[in-house]
Amino acid sequence: KEGDMEKDFNPQEFVGSFIQVAKEVALRPKEFFGDMSRTGGFYPPVLFLAVCLAVRGILGSLIFFNPMPFIAALVSLVFAFIGAGILQFVLQQLFQGRGTYEGTFRVVAYSAVVQLLGWIPFIGFLASLYGLYLQVVGLEKVHEVSVGKAILAVVITAAIFVLIMLPFGGLLIMMR
Question: What pTM, to 2 d.p., does this model score?
Answer without folding.
Answer: 0.88
